[in-house]
Amino acid sequence: MEAANLSVAAAGVALTLGPEACSSSPSPGRVVGSTPGGAALPRREPPVSVFLVLVVTLLVLLIAATFLWNLLVLVTILRVRAFHRVPHNLVASTAVSDVLVAALVMPLSLVSELSDARRWRLGRSLCHVWTSFDVLCCTASIWNVAAVALDRYWTITRHLQYTPRTRSRASALMIALTWALSALIALAPLLFGWGEAYDAELQRCQVSQEPSYAVFSTCGAFYLPLGVVLFVYWKIYKAAKFRFGRGRRAVLPLPAMVQEKEAPHEAEMVFTVRRPTVAFQVGGDSWREQKEKRAALMVGILIGVFVLCWIPFFLTELISPLCACSLPPIWKSIFLWLGYSNSFFNPLIYTAFNKNYNNAFKSLFTKQR
Fold first, then answer.
1. Of 52, 317, 50, nearest to 208 (Cα)?
2. Rounded Cα–Cα distance for residues 207 and 173 (Å)
3. Which own/partner contact pairs does 324-333 have at CB distance under 8 Å and 24+ positions apart?
4. Residue range 153-176, pLDDT digits in tens
5. Helix, strand, or coil here: 256?
6. Three-state DSSP state, 34
7. What are the CA-CA distances from residue 196 to residues 74, 124, 205 (Å)?
8. What does the DSSP 8-state code read for residue 38?
9. In whole angstroms, what is the distance from residue 158 CA to residue 179 CA?
10. Percent of the chain scored above 70 by pLDDT?
11. What are phi and psi of 196, to 5 degrees?
């Protein structure tokens, strides 16, 4: 009986490994062992490739840099009293969402990427927690970008009506709406039974692929704020261009007007009166122009990076459930991590266009020493 079982087992191994594994001279690179009874053992797993190690290292560095850089922005805003106002509260809200992306979402996504065939082995409950935080934090990050763009738009186009008190109330309302809408989109599958994130048979964990939820979530989390930021930046560009052009036309005739009025006086009097007036007005307009141009450029780069990072992912998220088609897993992973990288670029853009942050960073590290 034992001999029969042994022969059956040997035949099963031979069928599994194929004819090459059963030959007496195995090919190079294929390691085949044998037991004392003569049964062949399965081949060893291939070694980890250098490319995989490089990719995992880059993703780990991306997670660490995203977490630390956004945490540095948050600590700076909390410690410096001058930052306890608009628009720094909007920057702080963005940094909170990006810190949560780096701390709660990206590590578990990396674990899923490294598992065999992207199988989820952490259970149904943790799957629901992960997908909920994924949608919540990424949606909040996207809407915070829209809030920053709206604040800049109202500052440039309605600087007289948009007083500091009004600005503070508007920013608080935008932050509250951002997180409330993000929570609604993230928790809708759990609250209303809108699809299932975890598939026990396939051991797969992903955001609900219900077509109606796919339309709702992608429109609420991306396409609606995308329309807002594109419209806002177009209005910012038009308003800034109009104001800069009008400012130049208003300054140019000033020297001639002053010169005509002061001509009857002495030459020294003309020089001393006319020069400070012209220098003050040109300097004031030039400073305001530079400030608004810098702010418009910051918003433009912020929006451009946001669009480039997220649009591939959300296009596939909307199209795939509707047409019942699927991209290769490698492209899904690339688009997903490209979207996550937006949380890394956000604080870089904010601090690069605001010298106050750089000075605050220097003072913070100087005091630490």
1. 317
2. 28
3. 329/118, 333/113
4. 888 888 788 888 999 999 999 999
5. helix
6. strand
7. 35, 10, 9
8. S
9. 26
10. 72
11. -125, 135
C-alpha 369/C-alpha 363 separation (Å) is 10
The reported pTM is 0.75
Give the pLDDT score at 7. 45
pLDDT digits 0-9 by tens, 53-108? 999 999 999 999 999 999 999 999 998 888 888 889 999 999 999 999 999 999 99
Single out the residue of 199, 240, 192, 251 nearest to residue 216, CA to CA. 192
Burial of 208 (0-12, 13-18, 19+ CB in 10 A): buried
Q: Which residues 6+ apart lie within 8 Å of 337 measured at CB?
A: 59, 62, 109
CB-based burial, 41-53: b 16+ in 10 Å, e otherwise: eeeeeeeeeeeee
Helix residue ranges per DSSP H, 29-163: 50-79, 88-100, 106-114, 124-157
Query: What tokens appear for 140 in the block?
Result: 């909040």
How many Å is the Cα radius of gyration of the chain?
Answer: 30
User: In the structure, how many helices (H) and strands (E) does the chain have?
Assistant: 14, 2
For the ranges 10-24, 39-53, 195-209, the one whose mean pLDDT is highest: 195-209
Question: 105: closest CA among 150, 59, 151?
Answer: 59
Among 317, 298, 348, residue whose Cα is nearest residue 153: 298
Written as one string, the DSSP assignment of 337-359 is HHHHTHHHHHHHHHHHT-HHHHH
Residue 48: the pLDDT is: 67
Give the span between the Cα atoms of 313 and 209, in whole angstroms: 14
3-state helix, strand, coil in the chain (%, to 5): 80, 0, 20
Regarding predicted confidence, which is higher, 310 or 84?
310
Q: 3-class DSSP state for residue 204?
A: strand
Judge contact between 303 and 72, C-beta under 8 A: no
Q: What is the pLDDT of residue 308?
A: 95
Place of tokens 């259970």: 123
